[in-house]
Structures are given as C-alpha cells and as structure tokens.
Amino acid sequence: MFWPEHISTIGILAATLFLLRVLHSFGHFKIQHTLWEKIGVVGVSPGGGIFSWLLAVLKSPVKLDEYLQDGYDKYSKQGKPFGLPTMWMGGYLVILPRSMLHFLNRSRQELSGFNALLEGIQFKYLLSDRGRIWSNPIHFEVTNDLTSKDLAVLAPIMMEEFENAFRTCWDDPGMADNGLITDAFASMTRITSRVSVRVMLGLPICRNAEYMEESMRYSNSIMQSAAIINCLPPFMRPVIGRLLGLWTRHNARKVLKFMVPVVEERLQKHKQMGGDAHSQLDMLQSLIRVAQNHGPAELGADRIAKRVLALKTMFIFGIGWVFAQAVLEIYSNPDCADIVRTLEQECRRVARENNGLSTREAIDKLYHVDSAIRESMRLNDAFLHTLPFDVVAGSPIELSKGWTISPGSRVRMAYPGRFVHLDPDIYPEPRRFDPFRFVHKGDTNSSEESGEEAMSKQELLTTPSKSFLFFGYGRHGCPGRWFVSTLVKQALSYVVLNYDVEVTNLPGKKQSLLNFVLPPMEARLRVKRKVSVSTE
Ligand code: HEM
C-alpha cells in the first residue's frame, strides 16, 4: 500500500531530474527565446515552447535534411538567416543565406571554423593531443606545397600508382570473361586512398595491404564514433565517448606502428643529406620541412607520424567520395553510352596531343571530364550544410535588424550548401545529372580557340562560386582542391579508357544522418578491363 506510492513518487522525481538534466545540458531555456525573437526557426511548432524545441533537437539527427529544406525555401531564398535546432553542433546553428557569403572572406583571426571542426569530430573523446597535434595544426601548412609546380611533379607519380592500384583492385584474372563484381564505394575509395598514400608517404608503404586495411579501419572508426557521439544528448557523451575513444585510439596505435618506422627512416636520410628537403617528393618530406621550421621539438618521428594521420581521413574519404559518386552518376545514367563515348573521345584526343595523360598540362585539358565531376559534386554533397564557423574577432556581423553577433559570443553559423546546389532558380532541372552542364559550349573542340582560352571561360571543379560551395567559398576555400581535381580527373580518365563498367546494384535513395549524407554502400559494379587498350 505504502510501497507502490513511494515508487511512483521516486519515479516522478527521477523523471523530472532527468528532464531537467536534459534541458540543462542543451542550455536552451534562454537560447530558443533569443532566436525566436530575432529570426525564424525551423522544426519547431510556433508557440510550442521549450518542449517543442527539445523534440526538434532530439529528432535533428535524422531530420536535418527536412529542416534545412524547409528553412532554405522559407528564409534563405528571401535572403534571411534562420535558426536550425541541432544535436550535432551542441544545440543550434544559424544558417545564413547566399547573400551573406561575403563574410567568409574575413581573415582566420576574425572567423574560425577550428573549434567547430574539433567538436564535430569529437576530438576530446576520440583522439589524443599529446604533442599538440590538433591544437597546433602546423600540418595544414603542407598544402602550401600543393602548388601547380609541385602538382606537375606529382601527376606522373600519381598516374603510375593508379595503373598499379586499378590492376590490384579491379583486375581479376580468374574472371576475365565476366569481369569482377565489386562494392562500388569501398573499392573506389581503396584505389584513391592508395594513390593518396603514395603522395603522402611514398613507396612501398602505399602497397602494403595490411597497412592500407588498418588505415581504412582507423578512419572508419573515427567517422562512425563521431557520428554516434553527435547523435547522443550532450550529458550522455562523456561515458559513451570515452568508451569509443578506447577503440579509435587502439586503431590509431595499430596504424602508427607501420608509420613511425617509415618516418624514422626518412628523418635519418634527411639528416644524412644535410636537411635537403627535396630528396624525395611527397607530403612526408614537406611535413618534415614544415616541422623543421617550427623547431626541433616538432621533429620527432612519433609526432610527425601523428600529423600524417591527422591529414589522412580527409584524403581517404573526401577524395574517394568524389571519385565514387562521379563513376556511379555516369555509369548508372540512362545516357551512359553517349556520356562515356564523349569522355573517352576527349581523353584519347588529349592523350594523343600530349603524349599520354600523365602530365598536369594534359589533365588540365580534360574539360568534359572536369565538367562531369563538378556536376556529380553538385548533386552529391557529402554534407547538408557547410562547415560551421564562429566570429572570434574583428567587427560584429549584423544578422538581422536588431541582432548583431559580436566577436566571441557563442553563435555558430553555416550555409545551406546542398540546397543551393539543388535550387531550381540557380540550376535548371537541378536533380538531373547533366554531365556537360559546365562545359563552355561551342568551342572547346575548336582548333581556333586555344586550351587556355577555353579554360578561362569554363567554371572548373576547382572554381568556388556563390552557386558552387563544395570546396567552401572565399579566401578560405579548400587549398587542397587542385590536388583533388588532378587526382580524380586522372582516376576517371583511367576508368573510361580502360574499363567497361556496369552498375549492377544501383545506389539507393540518398539518406542522411546529422549533417552527413551517407555513402552509397549498397551500390555494386561489374568492371572488366577493355581488350588491348593502352593506359593512354
Ligand atoms: C574531396 C576532398 C576535400 C574536400 C571536399 C574538402 C573540402 C574543404 C572545405 C569545404 C573546406 C572549408 C573551406 C571554408 O572554410 O570555406 C576545406 C578547408 C581546408 N582543406 Fe579541404 N577538402 C578536401 C581535401 C583536402 C585535401 C586533400 C587537403 C590537403 C592537401 C585539404 C586541405 C584543407 C585545408 C588546409 C583547409 C583549411 C583552409 C583554411 O582554413 O584556410 N583539403 N576543405
């Protein structure tokens, strides 16, 4: 008699405490009012109060796509910012319209995406910062070495590695007549990763199958763990995050076991050659030079190997994503035969005129290939909104009449990248894959117009604009994009010249979780080497 009553009182008390803890951990008692007063908010019912807000945040991991589309149509298209409830970025984000893209031209001292990036990958749980690898990311400086001069040296090395990687991953002597059936996303990511690792660490480690598998496992564990933690309410993150951190750190140790001896050997050579940084051209060599400029403490093999590891996920997933999506768009299109014929003809002509496709100059002339990849990137963003940033210094940003964001206040902002790319007012028939949409029509094959002239008129995949935000926008647009472009164009030209490809299992409907569009894991390909065709 007394006991059941007691239990229900304890139950109600516990539930209230739990709810208060949840509300407190989201910190939204004040935020939601501030936002509602200043700008529109999506995903919450008008006048629904804190519970409507809380529900919107809890649903946001799977509803972000819907919320963003709603906000884009209602607010962005009228040039207005809107509030987006999100579990992903600790409560809410302000999504700015295209007309406010000019803010991204502010300096890194004024705008910083760094804290948001670290929060997004759940750095504090998943990665170790011994040696200040993440809090002092000097490894980003290696992108200064990816200039067109260095890419000219790297392009032939990359092509050589593609030849080897495709033969290893796509040629199965036992299946010569029927071709090889393979997982589209995994196998294409494996191929581009191998070429990326050749550029990062050189031979022979890029051909070490065990190392490559451990690397993939490590990158997967970071991505998956970060996604899980980002889906959890903040108060649950410390426990689950630390458990997942045990897994990611274990995977990191396994990869480092392969990498540290490679770095040690290179440091040894570097010393023997009196610090001649160009004894071998790859990113490790650039990193050694960068480390040297930052003082002797940075020159430890362990620390340098960790910096290579920090750069890796970007190389493995980003580039594999772009290549795999382009192949799937082209080979699953109803007009596949015509598209492939046009691409193949261009690759053959350029290869003939340039003695092959190994050089940067030759790759730069593949305008149709460039357009097809840019079009696939437009349709296949990896993120729903662009990478978020905070105002940390400089002048305030006026978001709407009566609401100005002053430096240092915690208002995190982003742009609706994917929704700009799919806006019918910007791109006619936006959901249709139109591979040659960006080709400068009429004269790319004309002998009267030089390659340089044509190129200056075509919007290339490396050209960010207010309508193409895949690599960001403004002065902080991705500095690795020329490298990505050269690598993916080489990969696609190799495919159209050397393989018959059939998509045997189509990619399903695009799904998203948090801010990520999920990769087409179920898509499968049949690949068969063409008979008696040279690489070029
Ligand atoms: C397909 C692969 C890649 C994609 C989709 C990508 C995308 C991006 C995006 C969206 C940004 C943010 C730009 C902004 O804040 O407006 C960025 C920044 C950056 N990316 Fe990439 N990236 C890729 C590959 C690479 C590679 C291979 C490197 C290195 C070689 C690289 C180095 C960087 C660096 C250092 C920044 C920071 C730039 C700054 O803060 O000024 N990225 N990237």
From TrEMBL:
Q: Which family does it belong to?
A: Belongs to the cytochrome P450 family.
Keyword flag Protease: no
Coiled-coil positions are none
Q: Which cofactor does it need?
A: heme
Q: Name one GO molecular function term.
A: oxidoreductase activity, acting on paired donors, with incorporation or reduction of molecular oxygen
Among Pfam families, the record links this protein to: p450
| SUPFAM superfamilies recorded | Cytochrome P450 (SSF48264)
Q: Which residues bind heme?
A: 478
What residue ranges are annotated as transmembrane?
Answer: 6-23, 35-58, 82-101
Cross-referenced PROSITE patterns: CYTOCHROME_P450
User: Which taxonomic lineage is given here?
Assistant: Eukaryota, Fungi, Dikarya, Ascomycota, Pezizomycotina
InterPro entries linked = Cyt_P450, Cyt_P450_CS, Cyt_P450_E_grp-IV, Cyt_P450_sf
Please give the name of this protein: Cytochrome P450
Which keywords, in A-to-Z order, does the entry hold?
Heme, Iron, Membrane, Metal-binding, Monooxygenase, Oxidoreductase, Transmembrane, Transmembrane helix
